[in-house]
Amino acid sequence: MIRHTAERTPAGTSYLATGEGPPVVLIHGVGLNKEMWGGQIVGLAPHYRVIAYDMLGHGASPRPDPDCGLPGYADQLHELLEHLQVPAAHVIGFSMGGLVARAFALHYPQQLQGLVVLNSVFNRSAEQRAGVIARTSQAAQHGPDANAEAALSRWFSREYQAANPAQIAAIRQTLAGNDPLGYLTTYELFATQDMYRAEDLGSIQVPTLIATGELDPGSTPEMAEQLARRIPGARVTVLPEQRHMMPVESPRMVNQMLLEFLATAHTRPNPIKGIVA
């Protein structure tokens, strides 16, 4: 992975930015941080200005207010773009980052050029909802790494885990090192906000890609299809034989998909100006 020196916004958000061209923002998943995007930074930076940051409660960014909700996470991205003097960007959100990206699209449409939601959740079934609520309770009782082994089994193929033990160990350490309160606040939103303003998703008017892995048990192809049906013109891509952490496990495949989408999306102007929902 290419190492960059992280910087901070006035509000304390830790971020890194590299490359030149149309700006692309990367939002990580719950329990992770901006370092998960190493493969995408390498693949996208020759063509785009890539901005990756630590979500509230993660990495070197501050804790969220306990009652800030998804709008507070959208506000964090707004403040980051204002600090960088970026009028509008393509936003790529992974898992929990996909919920943040959706919230940003609804609250700050004038700052959005394109939207990519990777391996994220929408309209969980009763069984899926019960499972994630149970994991939230375990995290509240035992800390951020309470479900680490089960999570890694969901996230990665057995072959990848066996071939990359050092990387798996590093991710396990990242999970364990999370601030407990920041992690729990974020995980509770991840567990409960899959239908956040679902009735308003039809207002999103930028090029949109919804993608997941064929074998992703928590962010299923069915979820991707349902979400895409709510957003006008959204595309759906299901990558074969991929599990949840496909940006890490298969960066070349994911990068090819992203580059193909961005090549067409960044040429289209943002039709929404000056509207804040």
Automatic annotation (TrEMBL):
Q: Which Gene3D superfamilies match?
A: alpha/beta hydrolase
Residues annotated as coiled-coil are none
Q: Which GO terms describe its cellular component?
A: membrane
Instruction: Respond yes or no to whether keyword Hydrolase is given for this record.
Output: yes
GO MF annotation: an example: hydrolase activity
- Chain ranges of the AB hydrolase-1 domain: 22-250
Which keywords does this Swiss-Prot/TrEMBL entry list? Hydrolase
InterPro entries, A to Z: AB_hydrolase_1 (IPR000073), AB_hydrolase_fold (IPR029058), AB_hydrolase_sf (IPR050266), Epox_hydrolase-like (IPR000639)
Name this polypeptide is given: Beta-ketoadipate enol-lactone hydrolase
Q: Which domain of life is it from?
A: Bacteria
